[in-house]
Design a protein that fits this description.
Elements (H helix, E strand, L loop, with lengths): L36 H19 L4 H26 L9 H21 L2 H9 L2 H6 L5 H29 L11 H20 L6 H17 L14 H5 L2 H14 L4 H30 L2
């Protein structure tokens, strides 16, 4: 059955009794509603996930072999000398038990920096995948949040693998070490969010070398991973205390050894969360500035 024709002078698609000059309501098929911010971010996350399904084998070194080599060489090898001569005040625990949670937090920093530097620059500069995605209903903020979600997944996976290897080496002293996994994720995000916000503004990769050489490596060596901060000269300790890695290392170690206190834990978590939130806010702004044309 065909629909009756509109009266003369009434445009098709508008009710006959509608006021003159009014337009027909747009159908949901003609103008679909834009999904919520996290629903759109999940679409961007799916891109990274599909890409990772093709490249995950290349991450096995950092995910599995790296903790095995570090714990074997430093924890067991060097640790046997440290434990034998008692040359470091480690609170009465073996060097392996002291070192392992520090390396766990440091691995989160390394994963975050690897994921938030060259992959972002490649997407915006070399491969242009961000520009292509920005031409779809995905907004720049969605692209940023999607990449942060993917980095969160990588941090969770790597920290869980590291924790299993720690247990296999006998470096765990408390069941509270399970809570170190979300701490490592938050520690990594405290690096990933602000660096992601910075990386999307770059045209060349020279700035990344500065981050790795003068940021990641000094923090890896002097943020309490390998020895207590109290062994540093007094004048340089405040620099170590303000680094996100020190807070991650200290909290992971306290959880692994079963010495975590409520207020100290909240202080570490609050510091890491504040940096992460600042990075998330900055990332939304820098992605919008770079990808809105």
């Amino acid at each position: 059955m065909t629909a009756p024709a509109a009266p003369a002078g009434v445009p098709a698609g508008r009710p006959a009794d509608a006021p003159a000059g009014s337009k027909a309501p747009a159908s949901s098929e003609a103008s679909p509603a834009v999904a919520g911010r996290w629903a759109m971010a999940m679409r961007a996350f799916q891109f990274w996930l599909v890409n990772y399904r093709r490249t995950w084998r290349g991450t096995m070194y950092t995910s599995v072999l790296s903790p095995v080599l570090y714990l074997g060489a430093m924890g067991l090898g060097l640790g046997s000398l440290v434990d034998k001569h008692h040359s470091a005040s480690l609170g009465g625990v073996s060097y392996l038990a002291f070192l392992a949670p520090g390396l766990l937090a440091a691995a989160g920093m390394q994963t975050a920096m690897n994921e938030s530097t060259y992959p972002v620059l490649a997407s915006v500069k070399w491969l242009k995948t961000y520009q292509a995605a920005a031409a779809t209903p995905l907004r720049p903020a969605d692209l940023f949040r999607g990449h942060v979600l993917f980095t969160t997944m990588r941090l969770f996976m790597n920290s869980l693998i590291f924790l299993v290897i720690m247990a296999a080496f006998g470096a765990v002293r408390s069941a509270w070490v399970v809570a170190a996994v979300p701490v490592v994720v938050l520690t990594g995000l405290a690096f990933a969010a602000p660096i992601d916000a910075y990386a999307v503004t770059r045209e060349k990769d020279q700035g990344f070398a500065v981050l790795f050489r003068f940021g990641m490596i000094p923090m890896f060596l002097f943020s309490g991973t390998f020895f207590p901060i109290t062994q540093l000269p007094a004048w340089i300790r405040p620099l170590a205390y303000i680094t996100p890695l020190w807070h991650g290392v200290a909290l992971c170690r306290e959880l692994s050894l079963g010495t975590a206190g409520l207020w100290s834990s909240l202080g570490h978590l609050g510091y890491l969360a504040a940096i992460t939130l600042i990075g998330l806010a900055a990332g939304v702004r820098t992605y919008q500035r770079r990808l809105y044309v």
